[in-house]
Amino acid sequence: MPNTSLKQSIKFSWLFKMAWRDSRKNRSRLLLFISSIVLGIAALVAVYSFKDNLQRDIDAQAKELTGADLVLDSRKGVSKAMQKMLDSLGDERSQEKTFASMIYFQSDGGSRLVQMKALEGKYPYYGSIETTPVAAADHFQEDRNALVDQTLMLQFNAKVGDSVKVGDLNFKISGALNKAPGQNGIAASVAPIVYIPLKYLAQTNLIKTGSRINNKFYFRYDDPSGVDEWVRKNEPKLEKEGFDADTVESRKEQTGRSFKDVNRFLALSGFIALLLGCVGVGSAIHVYIQEKLSAIATLRCLGLKSRHAFFIYLIQIFFIGLIAAILGAILGTGIQFLLPLVLKDFLPVEITMQVSWPAVGQGILLGLIISILFALPSLLSVRKISPLNAIRISFEKTGGKRDLLTWIVYLLMAAFIVGFTHLQMKTWAQTLAFAISIGVAFVLLIILSKLLMFLVKTLLPKSSSYLWRQGFANLYRPNNQTLMLTVSIGLSTAFICTLFFVQGILMSRVTLSSGSNQPNMVMFDIQNTQKERIDSLTKSFNLPLMNQVPVITMRIEEINGKKASADTNNRRAYRNEIRATYQDTLTAAEKIVDGKWIGKIKPNEKVYISLDQRYAQQINVGLNDKILFNVQGMMIPTVVGSLREVNWSRMQTNFRVVFPAGVLEEAPQFHVLMTRVPTSELSAKFQGEVVKNFPNVSVIDLDLILKLLDELLDKIGFVIQFMAGFSMVTGWIVLISAVLTSKNQRIKESILLRTIGASRKQILAINAIEYFFLGAFAAGAGLILALGGSWALAKFSFDAAFVPPFLPTTGLFVSVVLIVVITGVLSTRSILNQPPLKILRTEG
Amino acid sequence: MESILNIRNVSKIYQSAGRELTVLDQINFSIEAGSTVAITGPSGSGKTTLLGLCAGLDRASSGTVELKGIALEKLNEDERAAVRNQYVGFIFQNFQLLPTLTALENVMVPLELRGAKNIKAQAMELLEKVGLADRSHHYPVQLSGGEQQRVSLARAFSNQPAILFADEPTGNLDAETSEKVIKLLFDLNKDAGTTLVIVTHDLELAARTTRTIKIKGGIIISDENPSYA
């Protein structure tokens, strides 16, 4: 048998030539199909580039962020032993005390709560305190000078040379503070910074017992190479003394870590856009190959081997995918320049945006992999196209049973989704939850579409009018597009709606209400001796005393007899300072969920305290556990008597630890008073009086904070919407291209109907009925999936309640249906505008 | 004369709605090299199925199909593709030109698949023979039905096939164009000395061949001027 003579010598170059020829007249359409991944790649490249640039800038600027080789800080006092250690460290030393305080502008009469930094020494050793004039930073410590935040100076019309009162002492403003080391825009606007020399701090009389002061010690080393090692060795000792250590390296890690979540969210939004792109690629290539069935069969008749046919289309997808990925990378590189504009207020470093080639490369590679991987199931079916299709058009579609290779591709697709999700999510539990949700959504949509076909076929009344019968019959007849469109429209709708709902959940979580009867001013650090007088001053301004509570600072010494050193699993509980209160009744924001509330006790009775239930979980204690508190030197044994649910979003002082009345009355304490000031004029006047008479009392203008918070939330909201927008736009593109590609299935039928005398109106009506029903069904299914998904996310991930917004939900549903119907009908209309013969010949 | 195609006890059974449908039942015949044969029969008689089996487009359920001495049922799909490229030419009722290729490129494809050299000149020569040299750069959609079938003829002869299968070659053409195309087909066939197998309803066309095999209900009901029975 002359089989040896049958060897074909097809050159690879011919396959490229054939791919090029075959793609003629289809390239723009192919690009449209694949355009859905352009936005996904763009989003990812933007996010990756931003991440790269941020990391590079953090690395480069970490020294300036820290300002020293070693920073030790503590909220506790400094013991003698510790002081000895501090004196022995570094080749140069600086000290800073940071605390909240009011300052009073003499020229304007205005006052404002600021972050006071009393500094001694040449800190920062790296970078600088940026001031106007520049020399002010170097010389302000020489006299009774202050460096005041530039925005604050603008707000109070202050000039260099003016005077500000800090506590009992006046300081001359020697410079406007433009930027302090490691400070970002948001922190500066919430708590503006004022520098004064440390040597004058005592004279201000601001430091009282219980004042919340952060002591910072900065060290510069001629040779800083051993600093990290020193910190590692001395960590237990530092911890015991209540000190935290910060080095250039740890700051790098910390700063990078704090942006990991932001990056993760951004990357995940990009990934969802990309997943939609995958759906788009999959369905578009499926339709493309269906259209090529006859050409492939002819080539097979002429002797083309199945694998060569496969390669011809693989080459096309490779190049179109490459173009789409490159376009996406270019777009993403452009968009990355927008991200720092949006995020700049949150960034501690100056971002120098550059093209990140690794990000671009990663994006292009990813785009290419996705284009090919998600096109492969359709591409593999090319190998199964029988040459018989050339002589019998209705012989068969693209092969019946799926072969092993196709199943391997499905596995690879699943592995890709899981792997990539894991790269973004980092934990397997979240990864699997996400991947399984997508899988379940996919399977559910397939089942639903099959069910729809079955139901329509079974229940369609035979007596209904021809147009309705024909429109509905299109849903289940051969060549129907029900499965493909239900899956692609359903998934797009599910993604779009889920993002929309999640955005709503996130936004409502961070929105604070400021109702008309809520307090809008808080005064704290009120000493026992000042309490009565402040009350009178407040009343004299006709302002209500809305929430008046004592605050006592304490630490946990022992839990159930275990000291911090013995309870290694629960270090956090002992480490932080606790601000507790005592009260005889619960407030409206508190509800007992376990145990019994005891509001008052007699001397020598057991002290039953109440804990916020989440705090109790955090420190691993439950009802009847024994906690020994160190209240500024005095040990007070207590028993957990009840657990409370606390509504932290209520505008009032809330506490994690509440003592009953009768225990802490004599302990060193300060008081907090809340009131509501109706106008900003009265607010300024009242604040001025408080600062003049009670220099140590701090006043927080909540209206101002709420305004700042609103701005902050707007910015966060914009970032969320910006990234979610990518996915939504991609979703729409997939949806529109799914409908547009499906039109090919209906072209011939529409033209044939037209040829045998159906009116234009009738054909449009048939198509409108089919697309309306498909759109409504797929969108409804997608919406239900989104509602379920959002509910689950709200409950398990965000721990928030989810109430679907009725109007936007209806709006989304109607928009999807309208887009499907309009796109479907418009595509038919364009065909009906041409003579039937022309279309028949083009299609034939 | 040497036989180029041997069909022995060939049956084709399809599964349809859970039932077996015998489309061809125990077919036997041989075709001599260089002869012209018409396979005729009413719609649904099985003639296109038979053509598919003879040309190696499909596998028989039973029996053997030998083309140029090669037993097609022993080959896999890719090997059968190579046989088609080497020995077989096709003419289809609906022309089956590749819509994204020009007339010239369509004619070149079988030669390119073979890895032949100087193919452009050969393809142009064939287009000249079918009178379409001046339309060589036109796409199928820019050609009339008759012109498309002429390009299809040029393509069918381009790889100098040993056997040419034509499936209702005039089925989509008007009488006048059909006549021209048929004349061209027979002229080209005579020049090339190719074996020609035509599946057709058209008895006039069948009469032009040296032999007519009539099929009905999946069996041969007559074989005029047979060389093998």
From TrEMBL, chain A:
It holds the Pfam family FtsX. Keywords: Cell membrane, Membrane, Transmembrane, Transmembrane helix. Its main location: membrane. It is a multi-pass membrane protein. The keyword rRNA-binding does not apply. One of its GO terms (cellular component) is plasma membrane. It is found in: Cell membrane. Residues 270-387, 722-836 form the ABC3 transporter permease C-terminal domain. Residues 31-229 form the MacB-like periplasmic core domain. The chain crosses the membrane at residues 30-50, 265-289, 310-339, 359-383, 404-425, 431-456, 483-506, 718-742, 763-792, 812-832. PANTHER family: INNER MEMBRANE PROTEIN, MEMBRANE COMPONENT OF PREDICTED ABC SUPERFAMILY METABOLITE UPTAKE TRANSPORTER. This is ABC transporter permease. It comes from Pedobacter chinensis.
From TrEMBL, chain B:
It comes from the Bacteria. Keywords: ATP-binding, Nucleotide-binding, Translocase, Transport. InterPro entries: AAA+_ATPase, ABC_transporter-like_ATP-bd, ABC_transporter-like_CS, MacB-like_ATP-bd, P-loop_NTPase. GO terms for molecular function: ATP binding; ATP hydrolysis activity; transmembrane transporter activity. GO terms for cellular component: membrane protein complex. The keyword rRNA-binding does not apply. Residues 33-218 form the AAA+ ATPase domain. It holds the Pfam family ABC_tran. CDD domains: ABC_MJ0796_LolCDE_FtsE. Belongs to the ABC transporter superfamily. Macrolide exporter (TC 3.A.1.122) family. This is ABC transporter ATP-binding protein. The lineage of its organism: Bacteria, Pseudomonadati, Bacteroidota, Sphingobacteriia, Sphingobacteriales.
